[in-house]
Inverse folding.
């Protein structure tokens, strides 16, 4: 019987849908009911375990699962010796210190001798220790934002994404402790058949991630501006150049990265490119 790689993902929460969608984009399908906790893919040697995100580090570390998808914040807080193999680009957030809006905040040393409520005592403890600030950490597991208003703490350290929860609880963000996103973790030293399956999965996953960052671009260029246009478009190797029916014009095809997308488009237009088309790439295998 062929070995199966076991992946743990969040059962229900902010990362569940995108974790499953990512596996699906890698061509891996599952039949899932609303109460499924464990299932196998019918087209890839992968077994899926659906768990609370907080339990994933221990399960991967113990070998109940081989790999997992969860927030980097949870990986660091739990502190198991897991390998962070890949950042996945979703579930982005930050772990921040916040205080009541009316507080006149001058710097991190303001927290000295104060109480900070958090569900992240380990990360916060290290952060304060490195900064040389001694504060009292109060561990609470949920609704951290209300701690200052009920007199439990002078500040909080919690996950922030849009900032609206802080705002609606009369708090302001004063220090960013950590930035986080969903990551793929693995038990160190996966070997044998499981390693082979993992490498196959990683190959697909990186192709999907790469395609998310890049666009395919097609444009028409006057032949006499071609050198200038090619210089703007390095592409994977060099751009494809095809003759157009109209004399003196060519069609140029290439790949551009999302980071400098708009700058490149501006530069291409200024260099004389016309009829620019930009299309998504489904998979980029390199
Ligand atoms: O049930 P289970 O234990 O699996 O889920 P959970 O409730 O512990 O986690 P969940 O689903 O809330 O979050 C899973 C992961 O998503 C977290 O570990 C983070 O890595 C990531 N993430 C991204 C967030 C947020 N954004 C986020 N906004 N996790 C939590 N929040 C909460 C935050 O705690 C605060 O209450 O949202 C509120 C702040 O949001 P804004 O938009 O108002 O700033
Ligand atoms: Zn959780």
């Amino acid at each position: 019987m062929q070995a199966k790689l076991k992946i743990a993902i969040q059962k229900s929460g902010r990362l569940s849908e995108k974790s499953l969608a990512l596996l699906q984009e890698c061509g891996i399908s599952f039949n899932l009911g609303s109460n499924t906790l464990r299932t196998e893919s019918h087209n890839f040697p992968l077994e899926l375990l659906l768990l609370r995100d907080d339990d994933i580090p221990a399960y991967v570390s113990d070998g109940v699962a081989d790999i997992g998808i969860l927030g980097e914040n949870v990986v660091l807080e739990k502190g198991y010796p897991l390998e962070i193999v890949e950042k996945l680009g979703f579930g982005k957030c930050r772990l921040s210190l916040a205080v009541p809006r009316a507080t006149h905040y001058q710097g991190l040393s303001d927290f000295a001798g104060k109480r900070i409520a958090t569900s992240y005592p380990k990360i916060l403890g290290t952060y304060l220790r490195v900064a040389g600030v001694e504060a009292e950490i109060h561990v609470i597991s949920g609704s951290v934002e209300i701690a200052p208003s009920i007199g439990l703490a002078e500040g909080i350290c919690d996950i922030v994404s849009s900032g609206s929860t802080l705002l609606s609880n009369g708090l302001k963000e004063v220090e960013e402790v950590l930035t986080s996103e969903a990551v793929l973790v693995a038990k160190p030293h996966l070997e044998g058949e499981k390693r082979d399956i993992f490498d196959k999965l990683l190959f697909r996953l990186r192709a999907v991630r790469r395609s998310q960052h890049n666009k395919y671009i097609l444009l028409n260029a006057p032949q006499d501006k071609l050198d200038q246009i090619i210089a703007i478009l390095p592409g994977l190797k060099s751009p494809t150049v095809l003759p157009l029916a109209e004399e003196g014009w060519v069609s140029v095809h290439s790949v551009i990265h999302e980071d400098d997308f708009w700058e490149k488009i501006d530069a291409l237009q200024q260099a004389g490119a016309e009829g620019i088309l930009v299309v998504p790439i489904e998979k980029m295998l390199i």
